[in-house]
Amino acid sequence: MSAYEEFAKERQEVDELLFKGYRVAGILEDLDGAHITFARSEPAPAAVELLLLTADGRKYVTTVLLSGRAADVQSTAVL
Hints:
Blueprint: H1 3-19, E1 23-30, E2 33-40, E3 46-52, H2 55-67, H3 69-78
Antiparallel strand pairs: 1-2, 2-3
């Protein structure tokens, strides 16, 4: 799998979680990659951890978090 395909897969996983109402609850980076914890409170409390291995995937999550795009994804899900 090419580097772009790996990134595209990680980006899709992040977008799917955001669309389902999850929010980034924590980020832990180590030599293995970035462990992103997603949490949601409704309809039932749940937490999911996603391991991002690519640098582009880590940058994407940070960009989404800082730009507030997570809120945009959730607001379009309601429409």
